[in-house]
Amino acid sequence: MGQTFRCDSGTAVIRTDKGSVKGYEQNGLYIFKGIPYAKAKRFHAPEPVEKWENVFDAASYGYVCPLMTNDRPSGELYVPHRFWPMDEDCLNLNIWTPAPDDRGRPVLVWLHGGGFEAGSAIEQVAYDGANMARLGDAVVVTVNHRLNILGYFDLSDFGTEYANSANAGTDDIIAALQWVHENIAAFGGDPANVTVFGQSGGGAKVTTLLQTPAADGLYAKGINMSGVIGMLADERNSGREMAEALLAELGLSSVHDLETVDYRRLARAYLKLRPAFQKAGKYVGCKPHPNAFYAGDPCRVGFRKETRQVPLMVGSVFSEFFSFAPPPFDRASLSGPKQQEILRGIAGDEAADILIPLFRKAYPERELIDLLQLDYIFRGPEIEYIARRSALNDCTFSYLFSLDQPLCGSTPPWHCSDIPYVFHNIDLVEHTHRPDGDNSTAERVQEQVFGSVMAFARTGRPGHDTLPAWPACRPGCESTLVIGEKCDVRENFDHELIPAVVRYLAPAVAKQMAQKGTQIQH
Predict the structure, then answer these.
(1) Domain that holds residue 91
(2) Of the N and C termini of the chain, which has fewer Cβ atoms inside 10 Å?
């Protein structure tokens, strides 16, 4: 069957609370792009957009938030990107829906990665929501919001108008969820069944929603993919000193002048000042700030009781950042003894004697050399996060994505490599395809991962008939679905391994990478 497309005056026109929007129909889906959900002055809370009389053209993506530096395309085989025009008028969202009817489909709202500084709703090729909407019979929404100093810079010392400037980006997301609550039924979605999901910084944004009272009632479930990491480490100091330094650097006299100064000048001044502030342990912003609006990192202050019963899927991938720094050996050609020799040469005999049996117990299917690319930066905090969460409810589910990707022969999965499987978009990226054309394993895992996401979005439980029984975590027992060539559930499988890696291997790996001049960056 061929591709279909329709765009005329009577197709894909939906009435929202602010006016009508017109998208287009493609391959049985109705698609809407760049719909404004709010507006905002720099550093201020989002406000409703004015109603419009004419039909809004929703056939093009809207602006994305300005970045502080100019992206230099690289690593596209690992994480294929799309680059798009930037402007501060970036509070917009995109929708894919099977039909604008009264079916009340589950709604999935995607929060993009990039920490709280970068990224966009369309940044990665695999963020496209068409397959998820079509194959999952769901409504998919992706959201742009303010980032970096535009979205997360504390000016509260300078007046009540800036009371929550340190979390303005989160307020934008809440405004988008409010828009979804009020309008998504017209697009065929159920406003009472909204799942917020995101990866890396997007996963951390799911946590900020759990910890922000203003978001209560606007979502029913959450999926946190590789989002438990130090980017949420609480920064409780005032932004006054950084703001005053910016004023001096820019030759401005008032904080109000920061609202109108050219963004490029503002970003350059900030980037010039930030290293010294970071070195001194002072406030620099660009991440959520605990205050009256946001409770703070739950691993420090606990989860808010109001959100304890929100079902949550939490997970990460085997290597995360470590696969971005390929090891100086051909992984596939190493014998068992050679693998031990390399490991002992890096970690030392004492550490190797402790680590080897722990790794083999946790990952019996993996080559020993893979220990050198095992993530602990995400997984360590994640274990604590899941333990805290599962002590409150019976609806916290743990997973680990461990399917090697056919890049450079075979590479342990890296940060972001699970995204195409979640969106059912492996056909859109290169790194999932084998040179011999036999992609059956990737396709099977895609169905398992996608099926879990859709089951969770419908019921709050991720299990389905192509997976083994996957119970919720409970106090003292983390039941983790390990997703690889075979999927199985393992209880507390790496709880001894990860602390041992942090203690015995992490310093050696860091030293080796420093000698090579390799930096792991988010």
Answers:
(1) 5-234+291-314
(2) N
